[in-house]
Amino acid sequence: MNPLWxxxxxxxxxxxxRDSGLGLGGLALGDLMRAGATGTPDRVPHHRPRARxxxxxxxxxxxxxxxxxxxxxxxxxxxGQPCPEELFKTERFAFIKGVPRLLGAPHGFAQHGQSGxxxxxxxxxxxxxxxxxxxxxxxxxxxxxxAPAQLLLQTGSPRLGRPSMGxxxxxxxxxxxxxxxxxxxxxxxxxxxxxxxxxxxAGFLPSVHQGVQLRSAGEPVLYLGDPPGMDRxxxxxxxxxxxxxxxxxxAEHGDPETAARIAQYELAYRMQTSVPDVCDIDREPQRxxxxxxxTPGGASFANNCLLARRLVESGVRFVQLYDWGWDLHGTxxxxxxxxxxxxxxxxxDRPVAALIKDLKARxxxxxxxxxWGGEFGRTPMNEKRxxxxxxxxxxxxxxxxxxxxxxxxxxxxxxxxxxxxGYHITSDPVHVHDLQATVLYLLGLDHERLTYRFQGRxxxxxxxxxxxxxxxxx
Amino acid sequence: MPLxxxxxxxxxxxxxxxxxxxxxxxxxxxxxxxxxRPAPPATGSVDDATPLDAFVAARxxxxxxxxxxxxxxxxxxxxxxxxxxxxxxxxxxDAAESDPSPDWFARAVDRLLASPGYAERWASWxxxxxxxxxxxxxEKDNRRTIWRYRDFVIDAFDRDLPFDEFTIWQxxxxxxxxxxxxxxxxxxxxxxxxxxxxxxxxxxxxxxAAVVDRVNTTLEVWMATTIGCAQCHDHKxxxxxxxxxxxxxxxxxxxxxxxxDDDAPxxxxxxxxxxxxxxxxxxxxxxxxxxxxxxxxxxxxxxFAAALRERAEQLAxxxxxxxxxxxxxxxxxxxxxAALAAAAVAETAPAAAQWSDQADWTDGRIWNVxxxxxxxxxxxxxxxxAADCEVELLFGSDDALRVWLDGERVHDNPTSRxxxxxxxxxxxxxxxxxHELLVKIVNGGGPGGFAFRVGDGGVDxxxxxxxxxxLAGDGAAERxxxxxxxxDTAPTTxxxxxxxxxxxxxxxxxxxxxxxxxxxLPADRRRTTRIHRRGSFLDQGDVxxxxxxxxxxxxxxxxxxxxxxxxxxxxxxxxxxxxxxxANRLWEQLFGTxxxxxxxxxxxxxxxxxxxxxxxxLASELVANGWSIKRTLRTIVLSHTWRQDSALRxxxxxxxxxxxxxxxxxxxxxxxxxxxxLAVAGLLSPKRYGPSVMPPQPDGVWSxxxxxxxxxxxxxxxxxxxxxxTFWRRTSPHxxxxxxxxxxxxxxxxxxxxxxxxxxxxxxWNDPEFVEAAQxxxxxxxxxxxxxxxxxxxxxxxxxTARHPSPAxxxxxxxxxxxxxxxxxxxxxxxxELAASFAGPLPGDLDLTDAAAWTVACNVLLCLxxxxxxx
Lengths: 474, 871
Prior knowledge:
The complex is a heterodimer of chains A (474) and B (871).
Chain A (H helix, E strand, L loop, with lengths): L3 H5 L4 H8 L9 H5 L18 E8 L12 H5 L7 H4 L12 E2 L6 E4 L4 E4 L12 E8 L5 H10 L9 H9 L9 E6 L23 E2 L18 H22 L2 H24 L6 H7 L8 H13 L4 E7 L15 H22 L6 E6 L3 E6 L10 E4 L3 E6 L7 E3 L1 E2 L6 E3 L2 E2 H11 L9 E3 L2 E3 L15
Parallel strand pairs in A: 1-8, 1-9, 5-13, 5-16, 6-7, 6-8
Antiparallel strand pairs in A: 2-10, 3-4, 5-12, 9-12, 10-11, 14-15, 17-18
Chain B lengths: L4 H22 L24 H9 L12 H13 L5 H9 L5 H11 L1 H14 L17 H12 L4 H10 L8 H6 L16 H21 L18 H11 L13 E3 L3 H22 L4 H21 L2 E2 L2 E8 L3 H6 L14 E3 L7 E2 L7 E11 L3 E10 L1 E6 L2 E6 L10 E7 L2 E11 L5 E6 L6 H12 L6 H11 L4 H16 L4 E3 L13 E3 L7 E4 L19 H8 L5 H16 L20 H13 L4 H9 L2 H4 L22 E2 L2 H11 L54 H5 L18 H9 L1 H17 L4 H13 L5 H20 L1 H9 L11 H15 L2 H4 E2 L1
Antiparallel strand pairs in B: 1-13, 2-6, 3-4, 3-6, 5-12, 6-11, 7-10, 7-12, 8-9, 8-11, 14-15, 16-17
Helix pairs in contact in B: 3-5, 6-7, 8-18, 10-11, 12-17, 13-15, 15-16, 19-20, 19-21, 23-26, 25-26, 26-27, 26-30, 28-29, 28-30, 29-30
């Protein structure tokens, strides 16, 4: 027997990686968590965190702020008027051509709650939670096409190849639950977001930090189920056999990688049970299912909201939802403001409100940050592509609305403002990088210190930009 | 929101101030010093030491000797997996273990280097650097045909194309004098950049992004120099200025590609078999074209001229008059097909519909006036002729087109396209009098519209004049014009034309793949390259011309200032980086870590080499050996250093083996893991080359915005091809490969990770392909592995690990087999699923209980750490 074997029994994966010089630096504890080392504490954050987990509700395609949370009476007054030339003459639009005409919101708004926040009449349930929300009406971005704008929002760069927000958080903080992935992605609306898997990729970070997509149909994690004809007892026997045989070899050569693989196999075995358990929303009482509008067995945004709560409850660090179908250009009845927009509101309004109320009732809202929003705004002008008679708006990077709730954010607060037709920001602009800096701050991470060395320079989520928006903090 | 200008300017000025000293200091950096071949130190540490080993021994701490060589079985598995990506067969193991010759290993290595597996394994490595994939990337991520480039790479490794030529062909093969088809195909290397086909994107923005990627990839692959910073600004740590960046950019700014949806320009890139077929077609075509080129006889010419004149006179006499268009529509429907099928107006008697006059829809231009998706439009107009005649009506349509004349359908084209002039030609016979023309256009989505005009019957004014001249006997000058028309339209030449058309059709039927390649713009269309301020293509500064950074070796005046010159500059003997970088990459592939651990970065931000003299010696050998990759690999694997036992040593405190005091152990790559499982199971197909294949993957992995593209699992042996042939979708590579760190290949990948995650366990345990391999391996064991469990365990363990099991291992596996036999006997239905779910019904000569128990045992064996890694 190799004399190293005895000492190796004590070598945890943690010390191996810490000493390995794989460029992981001092921060890379996320994969140590996944390595199954026992009793490894969470990474110590840079400062006292306000939030423990994040649920990010990304409305892919981007809902119009002018039709949801940022009403513009003046725009309604000017409905049908040609857009003033100084607003569009130097602008590059994705689709608008010629002189566009202004488009007032076709649906009504009302004020709600103590805060008196404005909400579209198409979101009656969201109207009941406004006093929990911190509404940012002055978001802006640099990108006006979906894939680059989603990448900028989720990875800090419009090009592919950077780690996503969830990956950075996992890298910085690791996961309190060792039987589940730290960064989970849930998709609804029938399509993945335009930016594809890169929106939850690990970029140049070690691949263990990438988001794990829990699928709504079939197995929740790919290859989770045992082969046909194999039961759990049998899988247990195989894992035992693999361990015994691997340990015999480990005794010969003493390579800590082998010890790590033995631990990973144990974790995989546990995940085979823990993941289906947490995904089984059928275990929820009927009244909870009703509150969300969730239907077990199906694939829906409502199911994903409920699943997000269960995941956060189980200690998952970052739950990223993508709901596709908000790209309402008005080229036809399937992407217009009169039919598709009310449909998307109906699909999402109840579950979003139920999620906030449910988190609050369980005492989870205090340390769970919920973010809602798209990747950019929409034009105050009707797009009218090829003379279409349907109502819709083109992409608009200069202003959009995002709301935050829980996790140490300032409830019932409206931040920033846009001009009277919603074309430009008039006060307190918040760039996408600022939002990222603020999310990291709430989790106890300093966006300037959470770095990773790659290709000769230190990279971070916010690139060389970003500042924490103090006004959004409770 | 604007950036805060004062802060930006101040930073930029501060950065600029730092540049000059950085450049001077950098020239001293180890990797930029000239490459000088060092003499190996004298050493006598081991009997079988090569010069390479002497460099390693010289850096071992006092008293530490190299580890002994690994045993033959371990070495053969190591060499087979490293050189060919495949495990050794039992026959190869037997041969190696019984070879009495002292150079048994060198002979085994030579066999491996000459085997087809070598080229496939090393092509996989290069394809990461080339960011090769079967799709275009970005949002839509549509398919792209570029597998002929992959086959070129395999061929290049197969015949060990010297790396300097390999470089020149890929970067500038099209610019070589008398470029061969293969040299032009090689330039697809830089067409592996992404193409953005999302609606509303600016093609110039993404053309520039592709050029930026070419600049960065070239510098990273050949010189391990990351210069991304300089794209936007000068950088105090970076010895390359922004101006120099755009001087490099200028080399790549002159190709014709421009982020077009169809990846134009592309060229036909026939496979070798197609080339042979094509040659036969081309010979015959040349013969026919020569015959057609012969002029008509005088009689033929006069007969043709007379026929033309008669046709023209007939048309003139007919005096076709066209009424104004009338329009009805739109008539929307649930789908394109439904809109086409529905007779929204009575198509055979349209007078009953509501019509509006559209006098301004003139002939001979495109009218995109039907934007409604899935909707039909009708057009009608009156045609009046004074005498019977033949007329050709020319249509364009977006999308589908149907035409009726006097209530009778005369044309039907359910197409989907953009409208252009003269897309469809409809010949009709008109009798004297009035006729009614009815046209139906159905738009499926996007813009929609039509175009119309009446054909001239093939007799334009010039041709008619030529015919009259010839008939008048004085048409010498007009003959050529008339003879051309005779060749194109005369009944006499029809058989020749038909034969040519048939050969063209045969050519089309070959379905020769078209591959995107580099094509230099002609002199009159060259772009002016400017510095992009802050990296934005919209903010252009000074004009720059092609040039290389001052830091590096000089440009030779005889080189052209284009990609060909740049390629020659890269492989110039005075460039110390290309050889060092390549030697280091090869080392990394064999050891898991490079002599320079940061294989991607040889600049001041990278790590210095652990053995600088060894790296320089190896790089010098590489050049001296005519840039032969095979010979360099051979030099390394025949060294004692590479052949050492890989067990950890208690006497050396060196956890990452940077001293090279033991042999290398590393996790196998994604492709190799699957290839190995298929190989030991006896499933792996030896088929080489061709379009990428789709082995099984879970349902629903490909759900992609806008694209209805589907993963269609390949049939037959294509299910079991080597991983290098697996279809690579950038937004969704095969999930089992992703679990083992296969990259997306959206960009050049300089170093793959070798992670160790629970998701990998799930793939190895449960992926149907790995389960199928376990089932097939179990059948092999039962058939070929002997009669007793002892013999069978030995056979199975040796098949997957190359070595015999220890008594303890054998006992453990036999205990598992006993348990699994009991379980299988207790539940035969489950046993049948276990043994046959993916590999097909169990053959009658095999016992079900045995097959199920052995399937479980083989599932265990294929997941062992020892199998997933190589020691």
